[in-house]
What we know:
This protein is of the alpha/beta class.
Amino acid sequence: MVTPNVLSVISAMAEVVMSKPEGTLALPLKPVVTISRDYGSGGDVIATRLAQRLGVDLFDEQILKQIAQRLHEDPVTVKLIDESVGRAKDLWFYRLFSGKEVGIDSYRDTLVKVVMSLGRLGGVIIGRGAHVILSDACALRVRIAGSVEICAERMVQGHHDDLAKEIEKAKDINHRRGKFVWEVFHSRLSDAHQFDVSVNTDRMDDFEDVVEMLQGMAGAIHSGRVLRKT
C-alpha cells in the first residue's frame, strides 16, 4: 500500500482550484455561494440544486475526487485525510503520514488560499468555514438550519438509521461542525451576522422554493445590485 503524503494532498487541492482562470475577488467569474448547514437540514440537496440552477461547480465531494485523480490515490483515502484535518486540532493523522509537524495555522492558511481561489472562480462551496473566509467577498453566505428532531426525522424518511440514532448523529455532527469553525476561525455558527440569509427548513421544507429564492439573491449580489464590501 502506498502511503499518501498529506502535504501533497493539500498542494493538489490548491492546484485543482488554481489551475482554472482567475478573475478578481470583487467580481468573480460566476456567482459564489457558501452553504453552512445542519445535519439533515437539506443543505446538501439545496446546494446541489442551486449549483445546477446557477450553472456553477459544486465544491464538496467533487473536489476530493479531482485531488484523488491527480495523486493517483483512492478517493476514500483522500476523504479520510480531509476529514482528519477537518477536526482542526486532531492532526495526528496528518503528522503520522507526512512525518512533519503541521499545526492549525498551516491548515488554516492552506484552507483560506483554496477557498479564496474558489471565490475568484464562482461556485457553491459547502462548509469548511467558507462563509468566514469570504466575508468581504462578492459571495452570498447562506445558513441552512433546522431543529435536531425534524432533521433527524427527515433522515429516517430517507432510509437512514432509526430516529434515536439519527438524533444522536445530528447532535454529534452539528457539534463537530461548530467546533471546527470556532477552532479555526473563532467564529460561531450561531452568529447570525456571519450570514446574509438563514433558512429554517423546519418551516421552509420545500427545497425548490428555497433554491429559487437563493438563486435570485446570488444573482443580485454577483451583478452588483446588492451593496457589498470592496
